[in-house]
Amino acid sequence: MKLIVNADDFGYSKGVNLGIVEAHVEGIVTSATTMMNMPGVEHAFRLAAENPKLGMGIHLVLTCGAPLESHVPTLTDSSGKFCRGQAHLEDVSPEEVEREFTAQLERFFRMGRRPTHIDSHHHVHAREAILPIVLRLAERHSLPVRYPWAFETERGEHTPKVRTTESFSARFYGDDVSVESLIGIIDGLSGSSSAEIMSHPAYVDEELLTGSSYARQRTRELQILTAPEVKEYIKQKRVQLVTFNEIG
Fold it and tell me: E-strand spans in 130-234?
């Protein structure tokens, strides 16, 4: 099995960035996806340049921080930041979503790199109204997409032919993650030719502690993703750790 272990939220803060890089260098993380609208994004790109084996995709954002586009009123609150939660996504303007996602992608390209793939913060790309926009952008730029049909949408007859993994797991998340649970997730995916596991390793800094409800749990994820038992299990099972560049 080819396995991608992706760390979400690259660029959120320096603490998140440093945790992700450690989970890559010392552990099993092979890939990260970057929030182009967050304050740690330039730091993330510098770290990625120092660690060329780390795949670097884009983490499209509609629910955290501020947009890159200046006039997207259906996406923002009175302060000009993205609305929190996802209730507002029921009534967003598709045109505004596409403009904002395009701006985030264009900023990534301006940083001098090509993303390995597309996914999204809080899985917004899997929403029925937003998925066609993401698939259209993915097809335009020939980019793979995190498997969206594991969430709330179904593969339709007119789905563009974008690359993705055969399987995806978001189960490595929460207060109860452990070495045993991660090994169980990997074992459960072993029947797939390619799979992705989502993760959120980090060091907790002030930005993360005050900005995210999922903060201290990330240090536990970092400990597990670098655990010798996990690395040994992957070696014994001959799991091939890869990035999205290496899936068919």
Answer: 167-169, 194-199
Cβ contact 240:2 at 8 Å: yes
Give the CA diameter of the chain: 54
CA nearest 24: which of 231, 233, 237, 235? 231
What separation in angstroms does the CA of 95 have from each of 58, 125, 132? 20, 15, 12
Strand partners, 59: 119
Alpha carbon distance 121, 181 (integer Å): 23
At 45-57, the pLDDT tens digits run: 999 999 999 999 9
pLDDT tens-place string over residues 73-119: 999 999 999 998 888 898 899 999 999 999 999 999 999 999 999 99
How many residues can be counted in the chain?
Answer: 248
59 annotated ligand-binding residue: yes
Q: Which helix (H) or strand (E) holds 14?
A: helix 14-25
Q: Where are the domains of the chain?
A: 2-246
Alpha-carbon gap, residue 38 to 132, rounded angstroms: 25
Q: Which top CATH class is 2-246?
A: alpha beta
Report yes or no on whether pTM surpasses 0.90: yes
24 is in an annotated binding site: no
CA distance 24 to 128: 33
Contact status, residue 231 vs residue 28, Cβ threshold 8 Å:
yes
Q: Which residues contact 95 (CB under 8 A, 6 or more apart)?
A: none
